[in-house]
Design goal:
The complex is a heterotrimer of chains A (352), B (401) and C (394). With 352 residues, chain A is α/β, with parallel strands linked by helices. Chain A has 14 helices and 15 strands. Among the domains of chain A are: 150 residues, Periplasmic binding protein-like II (D-Maltodextrin-Binding Protein, domain 2, 3-Layer(aba) Sandwich); 96 residues, D-Maltodextrin-Binding Protein, domain 2 (3-Layer(aba) Sandwich), CATH 3.40.190. In chain A, a hairpin with a 3-residue loop joins β2 and β3. The chains are: A alpha/beta (352), B mainly alpha (401), C alpha+beta (394). Chains A and C meet through α1, α4, α6, β11 and α7 of A and α2, α5, α11 and α12 of C.
């Protein structure tokens, strides 16, 4: 008799599973995680945990020794340097694009630095807070020159490869629908498969942030056969992300980013930081180094926090050139990611 | 079926002997359609093998494997602690040698073959250091074998304890003991990876799922309706959904299920998922074993005055488990293969490492080499284990009485 | 012994009465489970509330905002999320059903081949089984897709079979029919055909039962149906389907029907993998039929094919069906690995949806619920079939 019952029981379990999560207990909504909680946790633990990427050349990948390298990883080091004065006091938790926000929400990571686009929905509903952008990007398309595609309209009836779980996927759908271009998307779970299939000719185009396109084009077997379309269909400001509810931690990560901008603007590098600190008479630089005032204490850190960032990790230009500069395999021209004095968008508020 | 002993005087029927031509005729060209089939099969073999072999020995870039071998095997495990993985492996081969020596009575050719595998591997272009370590695998298993052969009777019991002790000890060696400093520092699970992680996840998964699976099997058999319904519900829910969804759920939701102060590492989350998954299948296998025990055993045991619990613990369970051991081995092999799905959770098991290696600018475009290598590793492990377990089963007479 | 037991039972206090204890134990267990469940649920709600989220399935009625490359029904980015779920479910179901049919055919073939007297055929088949059974499906799929399907010739150099079937790394394009005005009328004709052939089948079965010499029932049934279908096609004023031939225009083939390489890779990967297991099951099933049955059948004058069809298979089926059911379920569940090779199945779409909406709990619950229902339906159907073919014990 109970044998016959089991499908029914199991079906009931399904229904319970589905509808069990329906009833809503909204009583204690939007409880603040509390000012200063994250920093206390991090300091007690002794290292920062950053959500990162393990498979984007130039931004986050594993080298042969099994260490993480890349632009995003260096910003994680900068946060570690600011908090602990030790650029190695960090741990990278590799996350897929699908799990990154859950990991942030659950408190598994302290900060998410994994080419994540700042959008309104993510800033509000997903419960994430975006600090200042570290890399300005935009979504573009790479195509084969031989196909004679010059505008998006030429791609009508074509196939586009894209990575899942990203704003890229939605941008693609929005743009092509708005312009009335018919296309077939092929959606991959990981970047590598997408590029392989593009190169083999499965798709007419691969779409992702232009930085990704530029960095990756050099690694195609014949880079000259491909070109990136001029059109940019989206704004993709990429930067570190923290949880809602802890403004102190937000400030720390935010000003860590600004410190790298400031250092570049003032010509402070990892090499000359110590000399500059001793020699400077500029009041802004003096408060930056902590020789004057107590900016670090205001953040809840030690006063030499900014000095630690620059001396241990470097200024923005150093971080950029190390990972994406002309000497690397993943060279991307700086473009918008230059100081405002050079026509870019990097502008640090005053350190006072 | 028959009571004749092995020492029966009846001679086996004469084996048929053929000349080469006769063999060819009988096995390949006996009828016209058989001849056609043979030709077709031969053509198929040729058409598949030729491009494959040309590629393997000509075009393939195997440097991606040799340069990243350490990553593939142990992931980001610190290189200066690598000896601990070797130590755990030596211990394992020693225990295998010990049990082979005490359980397998006759001289076995297959044992010799297993013994020679490391010797052949040592001929591959590894560094001298690595070759010695690989040879060490053979040496340790031989030591175990010789020790056991000296007194097979005593060591057959010892080897059972050795197996039971091996897993906690091996895990301890790999994880470490003495905090961050010293001789035996703790290696964070975040750094575990590669084949080591694949094997560990499946071994731990099977070990933890065993008690859960047995309880679920008993629960399902239970006459108490609520307990049996809950067991059935659990088993059928888990068996009804793909492993990947269970892993995905554990990855995203386990942190939500627990109080926010508790932080669980992603490896543990994957392990919880794997354990639940494996437990449900284990329960069904054990239930199969329970049902295979004739009713007479229950009745006899009750007649002797044993209680329900005693009957289960001392009469039914031992027989049932004995009957399902072969199935459990194949379940383990299945789990080993299924563990690759943790890649989707961005864990660095051997497949995840493969993906990470392909993200390295130097090795772009070598996906075939990487995936073929991974497939080969799994094939060797899984085929090797099923072969060895079949041998052991026949030697021990497991699963049959 | 028995007597003392009954007399004691009357005076036994309720806390030692086994029946009471059983009920009590169960209630305590149930309460423990419920408390634990509530604890987990409460933690989850608290954690979500911290981020200002409350679980709700309202997102199903919001615009999806993403496109799906392969679909059996109309869908565009402006449709609701629930429509996207439906598209995904249909994709999963379709690949599973086709996969189950093909892997059964290939598996039966492999199982028989392994028992073949032809040495080469038997060896090849057994090598195939040993290789496929010992590698993980995920590795096989990724290798199969990136190593084989994607390395086929590009669309401009597509291999053509005949004049209008093209194979490239964009998949396989075949000619396809486009319904014309008479298509609906033709569907009615087909319906009539099915009814007629059913009647023929029923009548012939009766004849067979009466005379003890069944005519070729299946053959005549099919002939009836085909006759109606062909006559209807010719009799209608306009043929119900016009042939749409694929041609290379611009970037892709236009016209015809395209099977994408993702679909083909997933389907063939699932089929060759599952067929290896089905092959083993079929072999074991055939071996379970005692040799005497085959010898008796040959002695009665049945030929090898008839023996296999009429004697061996019906008996082997009883051993084959239960493990076969679990292989079918496995195939359905394994189709979720499609996410690794870019086929938009349920799991892949659920992942996209989770990322676009940020609703992890709801998406996971929905996805698992659907998989579970699919599995249950399959196993209920197979249990029914298994009962039907079960040996009637007398």
């Amino acid at each position: 008799m109970s044998k016959k019952l089991f499908p029914i029981v199991a079906l009931l379990m399904v229904l319970a599973l589905v509808f069990g999560s329906l009833p809503v207990a909204a009583g204690n909504a939007a409880q603040e995680a509390g000012y200063g909680a994250t920093l206390a946790t991090v300091q007690e633990r002794g290292y920062v945990i950053c959500g990162g990427n393990a498979s984007v050349p130039g931004f986050g990948f594993l080298d042969e020794a099994g260490d993480y390298q890349g632009f995003d990883i260096d910003f994680c080091k900068a946060v570690a340097a600011a908090v602990f004065g030790d650029a190695e006091a960090y741990e990278i938790r590799p996350l897929s694009s699908q799990e990154r926000f859950s990991a942030l929400q659950s408190g598994e990571i302290d900060v998410l630095i994994r080419n994540t686009t700042w959008t309104l929905t993510r800033d509000t509903e997903v419960g994430a807070n975006f600090v200042h952008t570290t890399f300005y990007d935009g979504q573009g398309f790479i195509v084969r020159k031989a196909d004679g595609i010059n505008t998006l309209e030429d791609m009508d009836g074509g196939t586009v490869c894209v990575q899942t779980g990203t704003t890229t996927e939605a941008n693609l759908a929005d743009t092509f629908a708005a312009r009335g271009i018919s296309y077939e998307p092929v959606v991959y779970e990981d970047v590598e498969t997408g590029w392989t299939t593009y190169e083999e000719g499965r798709c007419d185009s691969y779409t992702t942030d232009k930085s990704g396109l530029v960095a990756r084009q050099t690694l195609l077997s014949v880079p000259e056969d491909h070109m990136i379309l001029d059109e940019t269909i989206s704004k993709e400001p990429l930067g570190p992300v923290v949880r809602h509810g802890d403004d102190q931690w937000f400030d720390i990560v935010q000003w860590t980013v600004f410190a790298t901008f400031f250092a570049e603007e003032h010509g402070i590098t990892s090499e000359n930081a110590a000399d500059m600190m001793a020699a400077t008479t500029n009041p802004r630089e003096m408060s930056f180094f902590g020789a004057e005032g107590d900016l670090g204490v205001k953040l809840g850190l030690s006063n030499d926090w900014a000095y630690n960032i620059v001396s241990l990790v470097g200024n923005y230009a150093e971080i950029y050139n190390r990972n994406l500069g002309p000497d690397t395999a993943t060279y991307i021209p700086r473009g918008l990611n230059s100081l405002y004095t050079d026509g870019g968008l990097l502008y640090a508020p005053p350190f006072r | 079926m028959t009571t004749t002993t092995a020492k029966s005087k009846v001679l086996p029927p004469p084996t048929e002997r053929y000349s080469l031509l006769g063999w060819l005729h009988k096995n390949l060209f006996s009828t016209w359609y058989n001849a056609l089939l043979t030709l077709f099969a031969a053509w198929l073999t040729y058409a598949m093998l030729k491009p494959t072999l040309t590629w393997i020995f000509g075009e393939a870039r195997w440097d991606v494997i040799s340069a990243n071998l350490k990553l593939f095997m142990i992931g980001r495990y610190p290189i200066e602690q690598e000896w601990r993985v070797w130590a755990a492996l030596f211990l394992l081969t020693w225990v295998i040698g010990l049990s082979w020596g005490s359980w397998v009575k006759k001289f076995e050719l297959s044992g010799l073959v297993l013994l020679l595998i490391p010797v052949f591997m040592a001929l591959l272009p590894f560094s001298m250091d690595d070759r010695l370590k690989i040879l060490g695998l053979s040496v340790f298993s031989l030591i175990g074998y010789v020790i056991a052969k000296s007194q097979p009777a005593t060591f057959s019991k010892v080897s059972i304890f050795a197996w039971l002790l091996y897993f906690p000890v091996g895990l301890l060696i790999i994880r470490g003991l003495t905090g961050d400093e010293g001789f035996f520092p703790v290696v964070d699970t975040q750094l575990w990876g590669g084949l080591m992680l694949t094997v560990l996840l499946s071994v731990l998964g099977i070990m933890f799922s065993f008690p859960i699976g047995v309880s679920l099997a008993l629960g399902r058999q239970s006459k108490l309706p609520i307990i049996s319904w809950i067991s059935i519900g659990f088993i059928e829910t888990i068996r009804g959904v793909p492993l990947i969804t269970i892993l995905f759920m554990m990855d995203l939701m386990l942190p939500l299920f627990l109080p926010s102060e508790i932080r669980i590492e992603s490896i543990i989350r994957a392990l919880v998922g794997i354990t639940f998954f494996s437990a449900a299948y284990m329960a069904e296998n054990v239930r199969g074993g329970l049902q295979s025990i004739p009713r007479g055993q229950h009745e006899a045991s009750h007649a002797l005055g044993l209680s329900g619990f005693q009957t289960m613990a001392f009469i039914i369970m031992p027989q049932a488990l004995r009957a399902v051991i072969p199935i459990l081995v194949s379940q383990f092999i299945g789990l080993l293969k299924d563990t690759t799905l943790v890649m989707i959770l961005s864990l660095f098991d051997i497949l995840g490492i493969g993906k990470a290696v392909l993200g390295n600018p130097d090795y772009i475009g070598t996906s075939r080499e990487v995936y073929l290598f991974i497939a080969a590793v799994f094939w060797i492990l899984s085929y090797g284990m099923s072969y060895a377990s079949q041998r052991l089963e026949t030697a021990l007479g497991l699963g049959e009485r | 012994m028995e007597k003392t037991h009954t007399t004691q039972q009357a005076t036994i206090p309720f806390w030692r009465d086994e029946r009471v204890l059983r009920v009590l134990g169960q209630i305590i267990f149930l309460i423990a489970v419920i408390v634990f469940g509530y604890y987990i649920y409460n933690n989850m709600i608290t954690a979500l509330a911290k981020q200002g989220m409350t679980p709700s399935f309202a997102f199903l009625n919001q615009t999806a905002g993403f496109d799906i490359g392969e679909r059996l029904i109309e869908y565009e980015r402006a449709d609701f999320n629930k429509r996207a779920v439906l598209v995904a479910v249909l994709n999963t179901v379709q690949v599973s059903i086709v996969g189950i049919i093909l892997s059964t055919i290939l598996g039966v073939f492999l199982g028989i081949a392994r028992l073949s007297t032809n040495f080469l055929v038997a060896k090849l088949s057994s090598i195939y089984l040993e290789i496929l059974r010992n590698i993980p499906l995920l590795v096989l799929l990724i290798f199969w897709y990136t190593g084989i399907f994607i390395t086929l010739p590009r669309v401009k150099e597509a291999i053509s079979l005949g004049t209008s079937i093209f194979i490239s790394n964009r998949g396989m394009v075949i000619p396809w029919g486009i319904p014309t005005e008479t298509w609906r009328a033709y569907l009615i004709v087909l319906g009539v055909g099915i009814v007629l052939s059913a009647i023929v089948n029923w009548q012939l079965n009766l004849v067979g039962k009466r005379t003890g010499r069944p005519p070729l029932v299946t053959l005549w049934t099919i002939i009836t149906f085909l006759a109606v279908a062909i006559i209807g096609w010719i009799a209608l004023p306009q043929s119900p389907l016009t042939l749409d031939l694929p041609t290379l225009q611009g970037l892709n083939f236009k016209g015809g029907y395209t099977f994408s390489p993702e679909y083909l890779a997933l389907l063939s990967g699932l089929v060759i993998y599952t067929a290896a297991f089905v092959g083993e099951i079929v072999r074991a099933g055939i071996l379970s039929v005692s040799k005497g049955q085959i010898e008796a059948s040959r002695a009665l004058g049945l030929n090898a094919f008839q023996t296999l069809r009429l004697i061996v298979f019906p008996q082997a089926m009883r051993v084959i069906v239960p493990p076969l059911t679990s292989q079918y379920l496995n195939l359905t569940k394994n189709s979720s690995l499609a996410v690794a090779i870019g086929y938009p199945d349920l799991f892949a779409i659920a992942g996209t949806m989770h990322n676009q909406t940020g609703r992890s709990v709801e998406v996971i619950a929905l996805m698992m619920g659907i998989y579970l229902s699919t599995s249950l339906i399959t196993s209920v159907f197979m249990n029914f079939y298994n009962k039907k073919i079960k040996l009637v014990e007398r």
